[in-house]
Amino acid sequence: AVAEGVLIGEQRGLQMGKLEGESLALQRLLTRRFGSIPPAMLEQIAAANLEQIETWFDAAINAPHLAAVFTPTSN
Question: How far apart are the first and last CA of the chain?
Answer without folding.
Answer: 46
